[in-house]
Predict the 3D structure of the following.
Amino acid sequence: RETKCNMFIWFQRNLKLRTGKPTRAYERNFAAITALETVYVTWFCYLALLFIYDESILGDHHPVTFVLFFLNTVWAIFLFMRLIKMWKVTTAIRYSIPTAIIAYSSYEIAGRWHLYTDIWVDLPRFGPILAMIAVAMAIGAWLAVRVPAHKKAELSREQLAAKEALS
């Protein structure tokens, strides 16, 4: 009842789940909410993939699996596009965890179709790529630490002013 996650609110509304009204003057515990939402999304995706892979239900190459793969990929891209517009690091981290899990489901299905070889399985062949990924992650972490908070707010205000000027 304390969540403001659009998906959870949609499920509560459409499944007629009465969780009660949010507590007044309650300060939300974002760590607990993030942990709970991560567990929910992880298990949902895990169980969905188990049912998709089961040959008695759908199977790897069932037409519904292709449709689910496409829809999941579109959903992951949509979530990623929203994620890259976020300026607040804490919000972005909370949003990125389920986004990554959802995107990984598409990656997992494509792997079942043998569309690629996992790069961490064959280190001699993919060592340079793994090194580039490590360097990119280090640069991203460095940038996250180095860009001052007031600069981010200033850039955000400039973007907002530019949008208002166009309107």
Q: What stands out?
A: The mean pLDDT is 85. Helices lie at 6-14, 30-53, 63-83, 89-112, 123-146, 149-166.
